[in-house]
């Protein structure tokens, strides 16, 4: 009988799998159980633990047969015979002798590493038919596909959640991290998981796909390198992860050998398909595989992609993903990287890259139309699934100036996905690279395509609050569109310049340009642009406190957007109706409207609109004096706004939290938060909307009345001077202040007219700056201006400086003279 393998290391992270296998083998109808999985998942190690724990179940023992060194399938029976110490004779063949020996024995036969001799599967089935008390446990990278087989696919180890902060305590609960630490500790007893190396170890395990073999090989490198250094070298994982234990088979001594063993078992066509599929990032569809990997090169026979995929799935090289609609497939990154190496060695990488980029350019073309129609949600989800492939196609296009136009086509077709699905900063970076490349000598891009790129880049800048950059891009787009007599992009540019003006507080400019866009859209029967323009008009009219007209335009936008299937704009129109209802005091209606808006935004995955919806829910809760709910919702919206880089909206959330702190009785915290919000509004040049100013000024008045001047000024200055990250930390942390009762006062200053004078419009003077100018005309000092407007002296000084810069003047006296001359004060 064979000597059974004795586990020399602890089995980590496989308790559930071990229990399942032991329970399955105890079932009378399970006589053949095959553990399958990619190389390095620990199939052999799991089988040895089964042997250690199942021995007493089999009255006639367990037989372990290692097939790793068996060259041909015809030699499998001989290997089993050697393990049983059975020999052929003149009366019996070797197969008959083995059958005779096992026929009446209650035995578990363990056949390890069956994948390369899978043609011997009939040997197993014949033995099982002839030996009714025999159970068989097989480890293999491919199933045997014979009757009675129960397959158990062994997955890699679970990994720490990506993108989350991991404490040492949470990492200690993760089996992949535990395996790394235990194997490192076997080499160095002083090795510990701690704050200095925890994140690096988690990332190493993630980059290695949770493959136990790869993790153990990486842990072995801790003899020379600390975990952060190992992580930095994983770009060359196959050269780094070598040096496995000498008593292991060759295929387990290096990561490359483990994957190469699987590659060598494939047919030529299967190897070719594997290589070409490695060009994909993050998975692919059958259609994508057929276009990129299935089309033959010159002189080749066409590959049957469907059958090839089936074979690669059998070999545990390709993994099907759970999908509700179109099936997708993927590879572990370690397996994909090996395939890509072979693709480059075969000289096929250049053509595969070209096919891949071409396919995704066509996919983006399909997406462009549906992103502005009834299939928005479906295409947003599809593009999210293909995002890594789109990134690869864009990277490929930027590698050669001659490919710039292809990259720009992709970007201009999917920019709405970037905007709505929370990839704003990334999308802006792609456009920056493409526009920079388009400006290089000798690079030709069609003018209309360039106009599309300028418009898209400008919108992304607009959404994240880069207003100067956005205005510049839209002005360039407008100039180019007028040269081309392109009415569509003339309308888009004017519309977006109107949104910029709105964010800058120039509501009359915004309204004027938006009405012009609406007229152009109606002339062209461009209903999509009409729905956007109607929404923007509603927003502008709200800012001007023309609430009845604002509601009317938003209702028109809502109805048209619903007809068009423009779910994104439906959500936005509902939000404008929400804020109108809030300011009119109709809380129940506001709650219903924002609830519907949030539901639609969540279905689309539009993170900025989700953040906006949460902000409005927080505002409703604040006005109802449900301060705990308001605090939680404002913080949630703040987190999302910051993640998306929308700094003008970050200031809104800080403002809301400051007002909550004021009502809760934390005066110093409230003052710091309001000071931080004011600084951020000045930085982004986005003033508070006029309808919300009364609440702000009431909070400031209440705090000024409660605190003495020095304490208020110190707290405001401290908040105003906070770096953004510190302001966010202040907002996220519960106040340690002793809670006091702050009398809530109404602001003492009257609201100024929402319509600025003509001269102020021409010079871009904001309503707040007009307040400052009026006080300068009265001869007030900066401190007196600060006291009157409930701001700090520093903020008042900044306003005066901004006015001087806008008017091109050099003194306070000159400002007064200008105001008198223009009749604005």
Describe the structure concisely for a colleague:
This protein is mostly helical and 825 residues long. The chain is 64% helix and 4% strand. α33 runs antiparallel to α36.
Q: Tell me the overall shape.
A: elongated
**How far apart, in Å, are the first and last alpha carbons?**
105 Å
The number of E-state strands comes to 8
Beta strand %: under 5%
**Integer average pLDDT:** 88
Strand order of the largest sheet: 2-3-4-1-5
By helix and strand content, what is the structural category? mainly alpha
- List the total number of helices: 41
Largest sheet: 5 strands, parallel
Helix-residue proportion = 55-70%
Radius of gyration: 34 Å
Please mark out the parts with pLDDT under 50 across 5 or more consecutive residues, or reply none: 748-757
């Amino acid at each position: 009988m064979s000597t059974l393998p004795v586990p020399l290391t602890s089995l980590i992270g496989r308790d559930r799998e071990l229990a399942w296998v032991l329970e399955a083998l105890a079932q009378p109808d399970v006589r053949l159980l095959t553990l399958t999985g990619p190389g390095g998942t620990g199939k052999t190690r799991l089988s040895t633990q089964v042997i250690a724990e199942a021995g007493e179940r089999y009255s006639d023992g367990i037989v372990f047969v290692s097939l790793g060194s068996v060259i041909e399938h015809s030699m499998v029976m001989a290997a089993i015979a050697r393990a049983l110490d059975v020999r052929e004779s003149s009366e019996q063949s070797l197969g008959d002798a083995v059958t005779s020996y096992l026929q009446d024995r209650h035995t578990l036969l363990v056949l390890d590493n069956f994948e390369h001799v899978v043609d011997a599967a009939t040997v197993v089935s014949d033995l099982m038919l002839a030996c009714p008390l025999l159970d068989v446990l097989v480890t293999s990278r491919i199933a045997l596909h014979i009757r009675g087989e129960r397959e158990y696919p062994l997955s890699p180890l679970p990994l720490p959640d990506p993108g989350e902060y991991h404490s040492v305590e949470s990492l200690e609960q993760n089996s992949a991290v535990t395996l790394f630490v235990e194997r490192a500790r076997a080499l160095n007893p002083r090795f510990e998981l701690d704050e200095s190396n925890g994140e690096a170890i988690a990332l190493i395990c993630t980059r290695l796909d949770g493959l136990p073999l790869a993790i153990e090989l990486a842990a072995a490198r801790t003899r020379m390198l600390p975990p952060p250094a190992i992580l930095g070298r994983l770009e060359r994982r196959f050269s780094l992860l070598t040096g496995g234990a000498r008593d292991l088979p060759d295929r387990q001594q290096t990561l490359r050998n483990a994957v190469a063993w699987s590659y060598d078992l494939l047919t030529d066509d299967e190897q070719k398909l594997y290589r070409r599929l490695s060009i994909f990032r993050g998975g692919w569809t059958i259609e994508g595989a057929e276009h990129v990997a299935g089309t033959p090169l010159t002189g080749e026979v066409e590959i049957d992609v469907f059958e090839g995929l089936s074979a690669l799935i059998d070999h545990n090289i390709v993994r099907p993903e759970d999908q509700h609609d179109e099936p997708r497939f993927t590879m572990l990154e370690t397996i994909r990287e090996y395939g890509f190496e072979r693709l480059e060695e075969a000289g096929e990488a250049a053509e595969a890259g070209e096919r891949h980029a071409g396919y995704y350019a066509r996919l983006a073309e399909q997406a462009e139309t549906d992103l502005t129609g009834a299939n928005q949600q479906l295409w947003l989800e599809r593009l999210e699934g293909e995002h890594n492939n789109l990134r690869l196609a864009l990277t490929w296009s930027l590698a050669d100036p001659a490919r710039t136009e292809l990259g720009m086509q992709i970007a201009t077709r999917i920019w709405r996905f970037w905007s709505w699905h929370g990839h704003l900063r990334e999308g802006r970076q792609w456009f920056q690279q493409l526009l920079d490349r388009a400006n290089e000598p000798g690079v030709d891009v069609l003018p209309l395509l360039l106009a599309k790129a300028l418009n898209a880049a400008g919108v992304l800048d607009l959404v994240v609050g880069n207003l100067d950059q956005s205005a510049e891009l839209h002005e360039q787009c407008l100039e180019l569109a007028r040269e081309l007599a392109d009415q569509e992009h003339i309308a888009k540019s004017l519309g977006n310049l109107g949104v910029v003006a709105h964010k800058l507080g120039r509501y009359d400019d915004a309204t004027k340009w938006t009405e012009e866009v609406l007229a152009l859209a109606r002339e062209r029967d461009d209903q999509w642009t009409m729905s956007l323009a109607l929404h923007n008009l509603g927003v502008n009219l709200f800012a001007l406190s023309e609430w009845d007209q604002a509601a009317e335009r938003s209702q028109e936008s809502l109805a048209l957007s619903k007809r068009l299937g423009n779910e994104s704009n439906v959500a936005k129109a509902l939000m404008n109706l929400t804020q109108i209802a809030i300011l009119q005091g109709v809380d129940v209606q506001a709650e219903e409207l924002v609830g519907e808006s949030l539901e639609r935004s969540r279905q689309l995955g539009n993170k900025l609109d989700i953040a906006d919806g949460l902000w409005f829910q927080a505002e409703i809760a604040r006005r109802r004096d449900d301060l705990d709910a308001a605090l939680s919702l404002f913080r949630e919206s703040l987190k999302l706004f910051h993640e998306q880089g929308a700094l003008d909206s970050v200031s809104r959330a800080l403002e809301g939290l400051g007002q909550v702190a004021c009502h809760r009785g934390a005066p110093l915290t409230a003052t710091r938060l309001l000071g931080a919000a004011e600084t951020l509004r000045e930085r982004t040049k986005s003033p508070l909307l006029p309808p919300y100013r009364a609440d702000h000024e009431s909070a400031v008045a209440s705090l000024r009345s409660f605190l003495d001047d020095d304490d208020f000024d110190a707290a405001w200055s401290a908040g105003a001077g906070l770096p953004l990250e510190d302001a966010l930390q202040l907002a996220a942390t519960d106040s340690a202040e002793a809670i006091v009762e702050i009398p809530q006062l109404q602001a003492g200053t009257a609201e100024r007219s929402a319509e600025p004078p003509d001269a102020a419009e021409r010079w871009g003077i904001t309503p707040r700056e007009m307040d400052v100018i009026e006080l300068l005309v009265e001869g007030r000092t900066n401190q007196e201006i600060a006291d009157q407007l409930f701001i700090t002296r520093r903020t008042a000084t900044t306003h005066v400086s901004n006015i001087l810069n806008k008017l091109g003047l050099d003194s306070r006296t000159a400002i007064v003279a200008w105001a008198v001359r223009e009749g604005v004060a």
